[in-house]
Design goal:
Layout: E1 25-26, E2 29-35, E3 39-44, E4 50-61, E5 64-75, H1 77-113
Antiparallel strand pairs: 1-2, 2-3, 3-4, 4-5
Pfam family, one: DUF2867
Transmembrane segments: 82-104
Organism: Demequina litorisediminis
Length: 114
């Protein structure tokens, strides 16, 4: 849908799979900030009525670490607010799936290192 609206679309190549730097593209996102092992700030490059970021982060905890993910959206006008409300149920599903996949991959990677 993003491509139809004149956006960048879902799939763009990555410079490398394991190392990110500011300016790299990841699907619909552009890397704005990297704190290795802790935080990643991604700015959405899809066509939306506003500006959007995704902020995945890892924090130390008693059990090892905790993964946290935050979506930020600054709507542009009434259209932006309506867009966010309309997309809210889908974002819940998409982001929950994303969290589950990231945590599963991290746990699998961690079990291979032991």
């Amino acid at each position: 849908m993003d491509r139809l609206a004149g956006g960048v679309g879902l799939r763009r190549g990555r410079r490398t799979l394991r190392h990110l730097r500011v300016g790299d593209a990841i699907d619909l996102w552009r890397v704005e900030r990297v704190e290795p092992g802790h935080l990643l700030l991604l700015r959405a490059e899809m066509r939306v009525p506003g500006r959007a970021w995704l902020e995945p982060a890892v924090e130390p905890s008693e059990d090892g670490c905790t993964y946290r993910q935050r979506a930020v959206f600054f709507p542009r006008g009434l259209t932006g607010r309506l867009y966010w409300l309309a997309m809210l149920p889908f974002h819940g599903l998409v982001f929950a799936g994303m969290v589950n996949r990231i945590v599963a991959l991290a746990e699998r990677e961690d079990s291979h290192e032991m």
